[in-house]
Specification:
This protein has 168 residues and is mainly α. The protein is built from six helices and no strands. Helix 4 packs antiparallel against helix 5.
Length: 168
């Protein structure tokens, strides 16, 4: 989950935050834009994934405490298993951070290096989302075509929102 969430979050951040800069001007994206958008994606992924993952892990421990009829509610969550939940959540956060940074920064870095029209960068990000959708469909036994189209359409919608918001 952290890997998929990070990649998806990073690509969507690139489309949202840099959409206007990519389609609204004739200038090429620089490495600075990729680094800034990647950093923003990393920070949001760190906070979101850690909070969600840690809350879920602690909730499982509290639920297990209740099911085992332990005298103190949440006893499992405050001991060694609680510390393992914390380290597991930190690991999940690290994976999501790296994936989110790469998902956001790589298309923008590619745009700084690759020759061609400036719209190539958002197109690469949408294609990457579609490819991720196809890979996910294969892993979970879903319909590949539906996942590819859904992820691509979602990417285009987020790009249009990013253009409209005109953030970067």
């Amino acid at each position: 989950m952290p890997l998929v969430l990070g990649l998806t979050d990073g690509l969507l951040n690139a489309l949202t935050l840099a959409g206007s800069a990519l389609l609204g001007s004739s200038g090429r994206p620089g490495f600075s834009l990729g680094a800034r958008v990647g950093a923003a994606a990393l920070v949001t992924a760190a906070f979101t994934v850690f909070v969600a993952d840690y809350a879920e892990r602690r909730a499982h421990l509290v639920r297990a405490s209740r099911e085992l009829n332990l005298t103190e509610s949440g006893r499992l969550a405050t001991g060694r298993l609680g510390r393992r939940a914390l380290t597991g959540s930190l690991a999940a956060m690290s994976v999501a951070c790296a994936a989110s940074f790469l998902g956001a920064a790589l298309p923008l870095f590619a745009g700084a290096v690759l020759p061609g029209p400036v719209w190539l960068v958002p197109a690469l990000a949408v294609v990457a989302l579609a490819a991720l959708g196809g890979a996910l469909a294969r892993v979970i036994g879903g319909r590949v075509g539906r996942w590819v189209v859904a992820m691509a359409v979602g990417g285009v919608c987020v790009l249009l929102i990013g253009v409209r918001l005109d953030i970067a």
